[in-house]
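Good morning,

Both structures are done.
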Amino acid sequence: MSGESGPIYLDHNATTPTDRRVVTAMLPFFTEVFGNPSSVEHVHGNRAQAAVAKARAQVATHLGARENEIVFTGSCTEASNIAILGAARARPERRHLITSAVEHPAVMEPMRQLEREGYALTVVPVDEFGRVDPAEVIAAIRDDTAVVSIMAANNEVGTISPIAGIGAACEARGALFHMDLAQLLAHQRFDVQANGVHLASASGHKAYGPKGIGALYVRSRSPRARVEPTVWGGGQERALRPGTLAVPMIVGMGEALEIAGKEGPREGVRLRAMGDGLVARLLSDVDGLAINGHPTERIPGNVSLSIAGVEPLALMHRLNAFASFSASSACATDKVQTSPVLVAMFGDTPRARQAFRVSPGRGTTEAEMTAFGDALVEAVGDLRRFAA
C-alpha cells in the first residue's frame, strides 16, 4: 500500500512542510539581500536589517506583542531554555518553579536542570484529558516562585490548556508566567497581553515556516520580565541570543505567521472536520478504540488514539509505505518508552502504551484521510488476526 506519490504525510505536529509562499519570500535573502543586519553602516546591512524589522513586526502582531519584545532564536527549544533559565537566574532569591506534568522536554529539562542546581520544582498533575486545573497551579504559587510554565497546547494529544487566572496570580505574587506556544500558532493568533503572559516561546517549523528559527517574547511592559543571558557574544537580540541573525529564516518565520494569522482559523475548520470524520469511521469499524485528549478543547489537526491490543509501532510498521504518523513525540526518538504525557494522563497502562497520533495539515486532502482510514481499519484487522 502506498499513496500515489509516496506515503501520505500525517505528522504535522512533529513538523510542517515550509509553505511555498514562505520559500518565495525567503529566497532573495540567500543570494541577493545577503548583508549582515548588524552592519548598519552600509546599504547591504540596512536592507537586511529592514527585512528583520518587518519579520519582527509580523511575529509581534501574531502574539499581540510589541516589536521590541520579540527575540529571534534558533528554535522554540532554545527560546524556552532562555526564558526559563534566564528568568530564574535573573532573580536568584526566588528558588521555586512550577510546571505541568505534560510539558515538552524543551520546558521540562531546563526545569529539571534548575532543580539539580537547588531550585524546588512543583509539577502539577493533569486530568484524563491532559489538562491542568488552573486553581491547582495558582495554589502552588509561593512568595519565592520565579517561573510558572504551562504549555498552550499539547503536542501529543492536542489538548488546549485552560490558563484563566494564572497570569494574574503570577503577577500578584511577583512570579513570571511562561507559555510554550509551539503547537498553537499555526492555527490562530495568541494575545500575550490579554492572557497575562510574561514570556512565550514560538516555533517556525510548526507553522509552515523553516526549521532552525524560533522566537521568544519577553515582556517589556510592567511588570517587565527580566532575563539573564545564557550565552554571550556580540550582543545581538538584546544580548539574549547573540550571533549573526539568520535573515532568511527570520523572514520565513515572519511570513509563515502572517499567513497563519489570516488563514489558520478557516483552515482549522477543515482540519477539525477531517479529524472528526476519521474518528467517526474508526468508532464504527474498530473495537476497543479510545480517543485521547480533550474532545472539544483541542487544536485542529490532532487525533490521538489508542486501540486495545494493537501496538502502535507494529501499526506504524504495517502502514509505513502508506502513511507517516507518530507513536509519540517526535522529539525523543533515541529510545522506545511510554510517553510521559500519556503516563501522566492514564498511568503506565495499555492505553498509554498503545497511543499514536495522526496529524493532518494544510496540504492534506479529504481523499487522503479517507484512504488512511480504510488502510488503518485493514491494518488493525490484520494485526489482530496475526496475534490471535
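Second structure follows.
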Amino acid sequence: MTSLQVADSFLVANGQVRGLDLHRLRFTSSCSALGVEAGAYFDDQVRRLPGFGRWFPRFELDAEGKLSVQLRPAPPQGGRIRVVLHDGPDPRTQPLVKGPDLDALGELKAQANKDFGAHEVLLADPDGVIVEAAYSAVLWWEDDTLCVPPADRAYLSSVTAELVRGIAATEEVEVAERARTAADLADTEVWLVNALHGIRPVEAWNHDPIDPLPFTRSKAWQQTLLESATTL
C-alpha cells in the first residue's frame, strides 16, 4: 500500500508548465489540511526543475509528514485511447485527495490493460454516474455543450479540466454539470484529460475495435491547451 498522504504531478516540457498555480494550490491545500505548510518547499523545488527535456515530477507528502519530489522522465504522449468501465468495488478511499489511492488505481489500470488492452478505467459512483477515470478527469460533449460530472459527486479536482473550462469560457462555450452513466456516454464524444497527456478523445470501449471519430473537437482544443503553458 502507498505511504503517500498527498501527491501532485505535472508535465514540464522544455521549462514550460500548464496550470502551475493550480497544481500548487491543490498540493499545498491538501498538505495544509494535514497540518503541513508546503508552499515554500513547493516554490523552492519548482525553481530547481530542469529547463530542458520532458519531465513529470511528483511532489509528495508521505505518512511521516515528510515532503519530497520525484524527478521522473515524462512518459510518451498518449494517442488513441480505449476505456473500460470498472464494475467492482470502488478502490478509492479518499477520492477528494490525490495521493492515497494512486497505487490502487494504478493496479486497476494495469488489470484493465491486461484484460481489455484498455488505457484507462472509468469509475462510477453507487448510482452508476461516471465521476472520473483512474488517472484522468472525464469531460464530454452534448451537442455544443461541454459537460462535466456534477460537482456534488465524489471525485478529484482536476487542474487540466479546470484549464479546459477556462478555454470554454474564452470561446463562449456553455459548460454544464450533468449526471450520466457509461451507457449514456457510449455514443458521445468523450474526453479524458490530465496533466501528462492533455486531452485524449475516447475512441474505443472495452473490446470494441478502435474506430477514430468522424469528427472531434479535441485537436483544436488540445493545441489551445498546449499554448497555455508558461515558463517556469
